[in-house]
Amino acid sequence: MTFAFDPTDWHVVPERLFAELKVGEIFRAPSRTLTDAHASAFQTVSCDNHPIHYDVGYAKRFGHSAPVVHGLQVLAFTAPGATLLPHNFGSIFIAFTELSAKFVKEVHAGDTLYSALEIVSLTPMGDRGEVKTDVTVHNQDGDLVLKGSHTYLLRTA
């Protein structure tokens, strides 16, 4: 069987319409174990050089068992592109418009993180629609380390 390859028609999952999305759908990211190298790379990119993130002695003096992974690095684990969510949106995606996060428990190198995005509301607004998701990150012990939300704007027509 021969077919003409079209890179513009290459999809990881079938694209869906706004009306096909469902409240309660959960999009999970693969687990990832953080290492000191991840923390060092994030420190370089973020320019956050606070010793709480890399100095064992400093962290212990302030009651931490080990250096604390940057909160924004943990937040990055909720990136929609780490899941299949934006692939489901496909060409109806307009913008990622809002996010919130609460850091519930500290994260250390060696922790394995599990992030998920759950659709909690779908609001049609004419030819556009708003999707809100709850986002969570748990560690290997099942502890919630981050909770928050994302909002996306999509085309409905």
Helical/strand content category: alpha+beta
Q: Could you name the CATH topology of the domain at 19-34 and 71-155?
A: Thiol Ester Dehydrase, Chain A
From the spread of the alpha carbons, the general shape counts as elongated
**Rg computed from alpha carbons, rounded to a whole number of angstroms:** 19 Å
Count every helix, treating DSSP H or I runs of 4 or more residues as helices.
Answer: 4
Query: Which CATH architecture of the domain at 19-34 and 71-155 is right?
Result: Roll
User: Average pLDDT across residues?
Assistant: 95
Residue fraction in strands = 25-35%
Instruction: Give the tally of β-strands.
Output: 6
Report the CATH C-level class of the domain at 19-34 and 71-155: Alpha Beta
Instruction: State the end-to-end distance.
Output: 34 Å
- The unreliable regions are none
- Helix content range: 10-25%
Sheet having the most strands = 6 strands, antiparallel
Question: How do the SSEs run, as a string of H and E?
Answer: EEHHHHEEEE
